[in-house]
Design a protein that fits this description.
- There is one protein chain.
- By secondary structure, this protein is mainly β.
- 11% of the residues lie in helices and 44% in strands.
- The protein contains 2 helices and 11 strands.
- Strands 1, 3, 4, 6, 9 and 11 form a 6-stranded antiparallel sheet that branches. Strands 2-5-10-7-8 form a 5-stranded antiparallel sheet, with no helix packed on it.
- The mean pLDDT is 86.
């Protein structure tokens, strides 16, 4: 319910200009669009890669930022147990909004853009947002697959500090 409410209210409040957002991507995230790549590889600079997601540049159907993005594809079956993450060791406590472009083919779901323990499920191609309240001065962001289709991808992670949260969160 919290996710549904957040998905409905975040765009409305953004249109109304209720909360001030400051882009802090370059301050806290390293290689957020995977552009440090020089070749297709499962070694992705500044990211922990469990599940052999690879940097790639050959897809034009995925709405990526720049040349490179991260993807996992297999010819058939479901992808499971994949996690691409980045740990921010020191970040001020407060509210943040994480955004990322993400994709699952066949609108399968089962893949998530996440920030700490908060996440948003990915269905199809789109820009996904996660609202997170940091209380311990650390942040883990990323893309994970519990069980999804045979092809997933992500790119263009962006992080915004929110001065105050007007969002009503439900348990």
């Amino acid at each position: 319910m919290k996710k549904l409410f957040t998905l409905l209210i975040v765009p409305l409040l953004a249109l109304m200009g209720v909360n001030a957002q400051t882009d802090v991507t370059s301050t806290y995230l390293l290689n957020p669009s995977f552009e440090s790549a020089t070749a297709v590889s499962t070694t992705i600079a500044n990211w922990t890669n469990a599940g052999n997601i690879m940097q790639s540049q050959n897809n034009t159907s995925f709405a990526k930022e720049g040349t490179w993005y991260a993807e996992k594809w297999q010819s058939s079956g479901n992808l499971t147990g994949i996690r691409l993450s980045q740990q921010v060791a020191t970040i001020p406590n407060g509210w943040y909004l994480l955004k990322a472009a993400a994709f699952t083919n066949q609108n399968a779901g089962g893949a998530f853009v996440y920030a700490n323990s908060d996440s948003t499920e990915v269905f199809g191609t789109g820009d996904y947002s996660v609202l997170v309240n940091i209380t311990a001065g650390t942040l883990e962001v990323g893309f994970k697959v519990k069980k999804s289709s045979n092809w997933v991808a992500c790119d263009n992670f962006r992080l915004y500090a929110i001065e105050s949260t007007p969002y009503m969160l439900t348990g």
